[in-house]
Amino acid sequence: MFRLDSENVYRAKVLEEIPWLEHGFGTRLSLQWPGTADLATVQQIHSDKVLIAKRIGSAGGGDALISNQPGITLSVRTADCLPILMADTRNRAVAAVHAGWRGTILEIVPKTVQAMAEQFGTHPDDLVIAIGPGIGACCFEVGPEVAIQFAKLFPERADLDQQTKVDLVETNLRLLRRNGGSVRQIATSGQCTCCRSDLFHSYRRDRDAAGRMVSAIRLRQGDR
Ligand SMILES: [Zn+2]
């Protein structure tokens, strides 16, 4: 379950219930979010590269940030691609992921789980994941050259050799089930950025006029 709060930021209940962290998924109305000087960012390149955020500012080229340090806010920017936030409830580590279709197919999400396992000892049983607003299966139509790349994960579909619609959220859920074992909790927003022009920027809808929305997660200061 997600709720839009008074700052026009989406909050996932599964992450709000964790007392030692703060998070949010920005919308086009959340101008103050995240409103902080301690942002860690990535130069997003639609890759499968996971970076450890050790300081404020750009961590370089990549599409996921992980950290267990308070005082650093991990952030990603999206407008149709999926913003995905993660928390390891046992080891107190967090991740922010940018996953469009390329990153999804390159398995950036399970690779982020793997990187957290290597860096922080994260076990899927302790992992809470929230998948924020992105382009929905209702709107994400792709050509055959893209659709065919989803065929391995959707063996029940016979239409992936032609122009058709694909579901990035479901793809990531299947990848997590296949690679990540049993993640403790996964929440999805159910919101399509392309459908809801009142709330979200959408690159597919607005092209070069589209803004970007910031989603972010951080460990609270002084709460270890
Ligand atoms: Zn839609």
If you had to describe this structure to a student in words, what would you say it looks like?
The protein is an alpha/beta fold. It has a single domain, classed as CNF1/YfiH-like putative cysteine hydrolases (4-Layer Sandwich). Helices cover 19% and strands 31% of the residues. It is built from 6 helices and 15 strands. The strands form 3 sheets. The protein has a 7-stranded mixed sheet. It has a 6-stranded mixed sheet with strand order 5-7-10-9-11-14. Strands 12-13 form a two-stranded antiparallel ribbon. Strand 9 and strand 10 (93-99) form a beta hairpin. The two termini are 27 Å apart. The structure holds zinc ion. Zinc ion binds next to loops.
Summarize the structure.
By secondary structure, the chain is an alpha/beta fold. It has helices at residues 13-16, 101-105, 108-120, 144-147, 168-179, 203-206; strands spanning 2-4, 9-12, 21-26, 39-43, 50-52, 57-61, 64-67, 73-78, 82-88, 93-99, 127-131, 141-142, 164-165, 185-188, 213-219. Strands 1-2-3-15-8-4-6 form a seven-stranded mixed sheet.
